[in-house]
Amino acid sequence: MDFLRPELIPDPTVRRLSLYLRQLEVVHRQERRTISSRQLADSLGLTDAQVRKDLTYFGTFGQPGVGYNVSELVARIRRILGTDQQWNVLLVGAGNLGRALLSYGGFAAKGLSIVAVFDNDPAKIGQSIADRPVQPLEAITDAVRQHDARLAIVAVPADSAQEVADGLIRAGIRGILNFSPSRLNVPPTVALQAVDLALQLEQLTFQVSLNSMTRSGARHP
Amino acid sequence: MDFLRPELIPDPTVRRLSLYLRQLEVVHRQERRTISSRQLADSLGLTDAQVRKDLTYFGTFGQPGVGYNVSELVARIRRILGTDQQWNVLLVGAGNLGRALLSYGGFAAKGLSIVAVFDNDPAKIGQSIADRPVQPLEAITDAVRQHDARLAIVAVPADSAQEVADGLIRAGIRGILNFSPSRLNVPPTVALQAVDLALQLEQLTFQVSLNSMTRSGARHP
DNA sequence: TGGTGTGAATCCTTTCACAGCC
DNA sequence: GGCTGTGAAAGGATTCACACCA
Predict the structure, then answer these.
(1) Which residues contact B202 (CB under 8 A, 6 or more apart)?
(2) What does the pLDDT read at residue B7?
(3) Which of A100, A175, A218 lies nearest to residue B190, judging by beta carbons?
(4) A23 min Cα distance to partner chain B (Å)
(5) Which of A49, A83, A130, B3 is the most exposed place for a label (fewest CB within 10 A)?
């Protein structure tokens, strides 16, 4: 990890790392000790060479003739992805989506915890959602400091998303998960992931349209 | 469209098509008549050559010296993506996420309409959510026929997702938007898009970890 | 034998650069 | 001059194939 040259790591590799981790956690629960690149690849519909190449970006931890030690690999991938740490997250937007996210179990599993909720609707401010009081946007800066929060979720309408993001960045947030259907502009020091439902819906209608035209196969993600 | 050889169209191209459409809709609302590949590219952080190459996969509709006719291009991309049609969608899973999706405005904008809701929890069946009664899973097959539904959203826990997907596919569904954190197995005739929150969270923590290690820049999606 | 790690080869995507048109 | 459409070149990612190890 420490000798990592991050700019050389292909983006697709990092994405697959998450898939490897998920599958390895399954295998780990089954108390399997080791796994080969072939076995891991087959369970995910990939090739063994790809698994090996991906992993060697981060070091060399397989044993020829044996494979990879499952629990060691789990620990190392968690460390690489950063989910071995605790992450405090701010949620901006207390609408239906915000509510759904607050009850989503997946955050805790990755060491993430939503520590505060914000909205600009006076009617919502002061209400409690899942035991967290909804605060005005002006309280963001203090909350970042108080909770040492590095991540934020933007779940507001498109027309206020950029404004919210700017505020979060000024307050010192280092990564944003954007649920609004808008392209956020952030400096290169701030990481950005977008959950773009409209885009994915269009990919789906495109694929289905194509399939029914051609009667051939669909592409899979 | 009719002379389209779908297997040749790169996946990234189809993804960008959605981005083009979104930006073109903005420009269209501003009553701009034409747009050049350069202008479109700049607004999305891409190159002009990429825009032109992407578009030529679907035909040739620019005018040298002038650019692309905005409203024509909007109409053609909508047609390509299939969002010029009406799509009836089944929603499986009436939890918090399902509820949030029912109130999400983006579906209607893409011609999608959630026509029925299903859940296997007896306590939920019969309840109404956003004017739609929650039905048992057994009612799926009839609903597909009745509404001529081709798409479905899977918003159930990971352990029942595959089972639900199998049922949907048997009932004739042609495309699935999967919100559960599990890899669904579907035949190649069924299109699949996954909204993988756990994966995106890990990409985010990875990028932020990297940034704070290297003090250099983050990659952007 | 079964398996990793990795250079070389292949495949795919993006960018370049320019002929041709308005 | 401005802009599209497109072959050719460059750049990345994936797969191949094999040396080497347990």
Answers:
(1) A17, A18, A21, A81, A82, A83, A110
(2) 60
(3) A218
(4) 10
(5) B3
